[in-house]
């Protein structure tokens, strides 16, 4: 719906207004002004989820850049604290001090996050992380689901379960894991920028099994497993189609032209496994 509405001059006007920096020498204040806008909009709708959910598809359409959406989201995190502050101000007199302290904790926690991850350009890691996850998901569409399951279900459940055994168990398991994570991140950075500083065997991860440094083996497994749930298993006898990654992904409905890599793009004129051409302007599902 947004894609059909935001076309032509409308999209160009929105892009020009939202993504334009303030005039020099105030251009460095543009991000902070975007925070004020995000906080104000969130204060109006009284929900950061509503605001961020509204701008997310606009980022996907290219109307708002990620660099501009980042301060808008940070400002939204400030605006959502007003809900707690207003609720605290409405507390009974004997509870006002305690409730207002908690509301201010919420406010200063978000302020601290902004001071930690925004003022200096090299600290804006969430922008680079978002781009990396987006590129990975564009290549492997199932990666988004796997990321959500691991980061929002399995990993928190695992940490909670270990913590139930005591802080000693949590430290004993968590410290080696964090050390390994730091080592991998350091090696990746050196491989990208100064590979000569590393031993020859560490300059690439090729010495490891493929499944430990590439998602391609897992992609083949998930693609083949998911194909068994499609109409391919229920097709009449004798119906066959050539095997291959582009066709397999098309069968799974993963051929979004806006995100697909060129080598993964199926023919735009015919539907895989069918001799009938697609209607003009039809969208694959």
From TrEMBL:
Key word Mitochondrion present: no
Name assigned to this protein: Sodium-dependent phosphate transport protein 2A
GO biological process, one term: sodium-dependent phosphate transport
Keyword Chloroplast: no
MF (Gene Ontology): sodium:phosphate symporter activity
Domain of life: Eukaryota
Function: Involved in actively transporting phosphate into cells via Na(+) cotransport in the renal brush border membrane. The cotransport has a Na(+):Pi stoichiometry of 3:1 and is electrogenic.
Species of provenance: Geospiza parvula
Subunit description: Interacts via its C-terminal region with NHERF4. Interacts with NHERF1. Interacts with TMEM174; regulates SLC34A1 internalization by PTH and FGF23.
Localization per record: Apical cell membrane
Gene Ontology CC entries for this record: apical plasma membrane; brush border; vesicle
Enzymatic reactions: 3 Na(+)(out) + phosphate(out) = 3 Na(+)(in) + phosphate(in)
Primary localization: membrane
Transmembrane segments: 32-58, 70-90, 96-120, 140-163, 169-190
PANTHER family associated with the record: SODIUM-DEPENDENT PHOSPHATE TRANSPORT PROTEIN 2A, SOLUTE CARRIER FAMILY 34 SODIUM PHOSPHATE , MEMBER 2-RELATED
Protein topology in the membrane: Multi-pass membrane protein
Region annotation (Disordered) ranges: 236-285
Keywords assigned by UniProt, alphabetized: Cell membrane, Disulfide bond, Glycoprotein, Ion transport, Membrane, Phosphoprotein, Sodium, Sodium transport, Symport, Transmembrane, Transmembrane helix, Transport
Family: Belongs to the SLC34A transporter family.
């Amino acid at each position: 719906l947004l894609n059909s509405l935001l076309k032509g001059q409308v999209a160009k006007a929105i892009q020009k207004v939202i993504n334009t920096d303030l005039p020099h020498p105030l251009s460095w204040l543009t991000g902070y002004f975007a925070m004020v806008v995000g906080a104000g909009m969130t204060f109006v709708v009284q929900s950061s989820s509503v605001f961020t959910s509204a701008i997310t598809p606009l980022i996907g359409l290219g109307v708002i850049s990620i660099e501009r959406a980042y301060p808008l989201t940070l400002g939204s995190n400030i605006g959502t604290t007003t809900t707690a502050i207003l609720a605290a101000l409405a507390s009974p007199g004997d509870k006002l001090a305690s409730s207002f302290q908690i509301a201010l904790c919420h406010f200063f926690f978000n302020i601290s996050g902004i001071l930690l991850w925004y003022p200096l350009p090299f600290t804006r890691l969430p922008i680079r992380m978002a781009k990396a996850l987006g590129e990975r998901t564009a290549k492997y569409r199932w990666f988004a689901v796997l990321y959500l399951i691991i980061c929002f279900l399995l990993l928190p459940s695992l940490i909670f379960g270990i913590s139930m055994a005591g802080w000693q168990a949590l430290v004993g398991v968590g410290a080696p894991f964090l050390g390994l994570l730091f080592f991998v991140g350091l090696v990746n950075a050196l491989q990208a920028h100064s590979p000569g500083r590393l031993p020859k065997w560490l300059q690439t991860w090729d010495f490891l099994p493929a499944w430990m440094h590439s998602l391609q083996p897992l992609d083949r497994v998930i693609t083949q497993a998911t194909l068994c749930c499609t109409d391919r298993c229920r097709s009449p006898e004798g119906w066959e189609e050539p095997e291959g990654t582009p066709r397999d992904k098309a069968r799974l409905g993963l051929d979004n032209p806006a995100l697909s890599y060129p080598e993964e793009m199926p023919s735009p004129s015919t539907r895989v496994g069918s001799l009938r051409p697609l209607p003009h302007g039809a969208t694959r599902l």
